[in-house]
Amino acid sequence: MEGRLPAHVEVNGLIRSVQAAGGFATVLAKGERDAGTILVVTVEKGQNAKLYERMPSLEGERKFSLTRSQDPENPGDFNDYLTKRRHQDRDIWIVELDIAEAERFVALQHK
User: What number of CA atoms fall less than 13 Å from residue 76's CA on the CB side?
Assistant: First the structure.
């Protein structure tokens, strides 16, 4: 079985990478230090939020997949969903990345 980085280390690396590229990144919800699930919210200039969650594939890999996009007609639904997910699992981390082409940073988190 392949080892996994502790969640807090992975989150820290993600935030530093985005900041080094000139973007803004922050933790919206802090989860379990070592084994918490990480959800990544991407935005550009605070707009067009997208949520990426790590999902297991048939090949046994755990890659991030786009699971929700903010509806411009009803933007509150997106935040309501995040709140619901947080109540379902107190161990999750929710990290927001505000940078152009934020998906490139999500793609780096391949484990």
Answer: 0
